[in-house]
């Protein structure tokens, strides 16, 4: 057999068995939950650029709507159809109960600098979470915040009483329903694709999301009253199919890690000031929008309801969830003390 034929046979073998060798250029499929120019898209394209600039591999990015809802993307990654996925704990929390930690209200501070330092340095985020994701066949590469959560509703609200009987859409993890129950609302878990229509037709009375998404998804058009409650951050996670990752050469594993680091740095820079810019765009686009920033006393009325959600988290996430929570709090203390 000629050396050319040998190479071809080995190449076909590598493709068939999902194996990887540094000698072959591969096309890696990467899906995320957002639209062009949104935070996850910025991350994905920075990752793609790094990989393509530093290797012969290519990265094909799929945006929301191209391959299904968020849960479909995770399943496709676990099955090895996709090599990379960006799925938010808002959805992953249904599979990995510990990931629901991000939905304990008022656990994270509102100060952006502190939050960013926390994600950089936290042992819970950078050491404990990868082990939990690994149990689901996922190589967790990065967790990062996208923006502070803001509640949008059909009329202005400033207290838990104002949320009474309001159907508030939440992402599909059980703890988030506990949060909105505690806040006095009627939580309605739904995938993203049903949110705009639900708000437009009155099936939903409100929802929560970071400002950039309220702007980019046009949510303010159908849910125009924005309330800053300071109760949490939208967090997301980028990961790879673990068999795929472990099958890569050491060199390619390093490339993937370096590309994730580069994408993270770029994205963190991107989100700074994004909420303010997006709010300006919303206010330019609509006269109907109102913005309520709760004062300390008003926030206290929501914060008082957080302990019951923390208890529900521990019940759902068990001993390991408790350990993660303790580490999470210790990591937060370390960054707020500095
Ligand atoms: O609310 C949601 O479902 C969506 N929110 C954001 C910020 N990104 C993707 C997610 O599906």
Would you write up a description of this structure?
The protein is of the alpha/beta class and 338 residues long. The protein has 15 helices and 10 strands. Strands 1, 2, 3, 4, 5, 6, 7, 8, 9 and 10 form a 10-stranded mixed beta sheet that branches. Strand 5 (167-170), helix 7 and strand 6 (186-189) form a beta-alpha-beta unit. Helix 5 (112-121) crosses helix 15 (306-337) and helix 7 crosses helix 15. The chain binds ligand 6CS. Ligand 6CS is lined by residues 33-34, 70, 88, 146, 171, 192, 209-210, 213, 234.
Structural class: alpha/beta
Order of helices and strands: HEHEHEHHHEEHEHEHHEEHHHEHH
Main sheet properties: 10 strands, mixed
Principal-axis shape equals: globular
Mean pLDDT: 94
Q: What small molecules does the structure contain?
A: ligand 6CS
The level of helicity is 40-55%
Supply the number of helical segments.
Answer: 15
Characteristics of this structure?
alpha/beta; ten-stranded mixed beta sheet; disordered N terminus; binds ligand 6CS
What's the structural blueprint in terms of helices and strands?
Blueprint: H1 3-16, E1 27-31, H2 39-54, E2 58-62, H3 70-78, E3 84-87, H4 89-92, H5 112-121, H6 123-134, E4 138-153, E5 167-170, H7 174-182, E6 186-189, H8 195-201, E7 206-210, H9 211-216, H10 219-222, E8 225-228, E9 233-241, H11 242-247, H12 250-271, H13 274-285, E10 290-293, H14 296-303, H15 306-337
Parallel strand pairs: 1-2, 1-3, 5-6, 5-7, 8-10
Antiparallel strand pairs: 3-9, 4-7, 4-8, 4-9
Helix pairs in contact: 2-12, 5-15, 6-15, 7-15
Ligand 6CS binds at residues 33-34, 70, 88, 146, 171, 192, 209-210, 213, 234.
């Amino acid at each position: 057999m000629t050396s050319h034929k040998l190479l071809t046979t080995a190449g076909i073998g590598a493709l068939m068995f999902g194996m990887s060798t540094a000698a072959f250029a591969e096309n890696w499929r990467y899906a995320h939950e957002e639209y062009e120019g949104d935070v996850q898209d910025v991350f994905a394209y920075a990752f793609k650029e790094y990989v393509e600039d530093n290797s012969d591999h290519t990265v094909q990015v799929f945006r929301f709507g191209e391959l299904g809802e968020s849960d479909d993307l995770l399943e496709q990654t676990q099955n090895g159809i996709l090599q990379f996925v960006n799925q938010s704990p808002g959805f992953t929390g249904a599979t990995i109960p510990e990931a629901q930690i991000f939905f304990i209200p008022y656990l994270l501070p509102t100060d952006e600098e502190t939050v960013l330092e926390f994600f950089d340095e936290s042992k819970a985020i950078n050491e404990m979470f990868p082990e939990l994701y690994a149990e689901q066949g996922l190589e967790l590469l990065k967790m990062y915040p996208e923006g502070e959560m803001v509640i949008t509703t059909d009329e202005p609200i400033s207290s838990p009483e104002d949320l009474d009987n309001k159907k508030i859409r939440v992402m599909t993890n059980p703890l988030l329903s506990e949060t909105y129950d505690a806040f006095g609302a009627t939580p309605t878990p739904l995938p993203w694709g049903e949110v705009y229509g639900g708000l437009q037709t009155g099936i939903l009375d409100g929802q929560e999301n970071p400002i950039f998404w309220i702007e980019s998804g046009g949510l303010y058009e159908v849910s125009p009253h924005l309330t800053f409650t300071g109760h949490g951050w939208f967090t997301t996670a980028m990961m790879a199919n673990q068999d795929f990752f472990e099958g890569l050469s050491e060199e390619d594993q390093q490339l993937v890690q370096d590309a994730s680091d580069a994408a993270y740095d770029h994205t963190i820079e991107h989100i700074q000031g994004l909420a303010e810019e997006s709010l300006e765009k919303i206010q330019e686009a609509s006269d109907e929008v109102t913005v309520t920033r709760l004062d300390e006393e008003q926030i206290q009325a929501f914060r008082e309801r957080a302990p019951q959600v923390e208890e529900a988290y521990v019940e759902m996430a068990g001993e390991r969830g408790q350990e993660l929570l303790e580490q999470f709090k210790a990591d937060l203390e370390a960054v707020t003390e500095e």
